[in-house]
Amino acid sequence: MKTILHCLALTACCALSAAPKVDRYGQSAAENWPGKITRDAQMRAELERESAELADVKPDMERFDRFGGVKTGKPLTATGFFRVQKIDGRWWLVTPEGNPFYLKGVDAVPYTERGYFTAAHDSGGAIRKAFTQAAPDPAKYLEAWSKDKKLVNFLAANLYKKYGPDFRERWMELTEKRLRSWGFNSAAKWNNPFHFDRLPFLHDEQLRVKRFDRFIDPYDPGFEAAAETQVKAMCAKLRGNPYLIGYQLENENGWGRNAPAILLRDASGKLAAKRALLEYLAERNGGDPGKFFGRSGAPIETLMTETLATAAVPPELLDGFIVQASRRYHQILRGLVKKYDPDHLFLGASHCSSQSVEWIDGARESVDLIALHEYDLDSRWIHGTLAGKLREWDRPFAVLEFSFTNHRRGFACGSSTVVKTEADRGTAFRIYTEKMAADPLCVGTGYFILYDQPVTSRGHDAEAYNFGLIDVTDRPYREMLAGVKAANARLFDVHAGKLEPIPMQPLRAVKRSLREFLPESVGAVTFDSSNPQFHHNRLDRVRFGSNARFGVPLAVGTVDAGKPDGFEKLEFYVFLWKTEKNRNLSDWFRLEESADNLTFTPVPAAFRLHRDGPFREYVMTPQALKPGTRFVRLSFVLNDPAAPWATSLAEVKVERRQP
Fold it and tell me: DSSP for 31-48?
């Protein structure tokens, strides 16, 4: 029997052998579906039909206050701004009018959000061949183009065609009615460059401060002054706005466990965070940090200009320094936000599974609520890796990004969030949001995102997913929304403990088997769909997240033959970045064997070059398995802390012996 755990023979839905071609509406030109837009008159007819359907939608002021808080008959203290409060063992947001509020939000409501733009030209400056017809005329569709005319937004052009030249106000009115009719009460995050102030919202910004790799250096002497300039301007625009829930600064850039290794390898003598780390180690080693690096007695000034390794540094010290760095970062920023706007909530940075738990630990004392992102139907990170810590901290959290996709209409496949149909997307929404609402610590969720990303990928990276509740022609996904509305109608009562969440259903993603191979590595690895052309059009590979420790083998997953001596054939398809200095594959990938899945011993591996390119793809196979072997485990080793993406796993193929 042959089993392929993660076979990209599903190339009919996933391969990007050529950029997807789109029509003049930004839709895939290679696929047809019911209701696909072929002329402007279709959009205008749908606008009139939907406007009539939503004509009577308005806030229910008998049940809700103007911010969406539920009038329970037991009003809480009204402060004029959003706040958090624990009530009967459950955390809640509280509206400016003093009513409990469970956030049910959608991210990136404005059509001008940068993720809705796609690159307009190829590397030679010509209009991309992906566009089968001319892109929108920039003279006519001004808002469909970035200021430098390098990015184009088909969605904005379609709104012009649908609503008319002065479309913004009519679009905003219909969008508000849509969100209310679907049961949402917030525009959540990613609402720059303008705010959708008809519903509560969050404000998020990236800081313009010094970094190492992509991580902020909170020890840099200029950090606080640079942050203050930006925070002051940010608060000046929003202070006093009662619809603003709070501020979030920095998106998914918190330190991973590889951050100390990156610092110690730097020999420039200029990184303030490296100096802080050496001073931290000196305090815990009798004033001699050099002992950890075989340089006993060496002054910090000398160590600053040397490349150092973390191998002999106790992991608990490295983790402790991450906590300290995060605490410093969040304390400084909280102080600045409260200085210029003492009324609104401070969320600090948003966190995802590629960051270390220690970074979140360092933030919890400074933030009013913890902002988390998770893309997983099963919630393995939040209700697995983080669960114990969240209970110990007893701090409220909100999931401000989560999503579910499928592969139709020319879109790329996602990873663990891909389901088969639009109706399944709605069911997945129900399962995930109701599970979160049942958690006494969770104060709400924000779905990522309102509209689909461009089929030709968003302008600043390779993402091209149908995350949206609405497609590029402004047509809602009605099958999905049936599940969304059913969930949103229940979430307040689920969080209040009055209703039980919908049970987990046998809803399986299109490509789950590689995910199921990874139980040992959740939180330290991530799915990667970037640069598919460099990986021979292999999408959804698994690689290290920045949460992996430098130089420490990480057990990625185990293959079960089903019985002793049950492997007929076993192949792992792995990648290594071609320009990595260390090209000894055995230093990056390791195999172990076991008879009982408890005791593992190393097994030699052979590597065969499968495809050459910027990332070389190899077939890795175990050699000379011992008699009685039933389990084979694959481990990654991070040899370059600044490049966790240098290695990845694309596929596992297994042939098991017949009984």
Answer: ---TT---SHHHHHHHHH
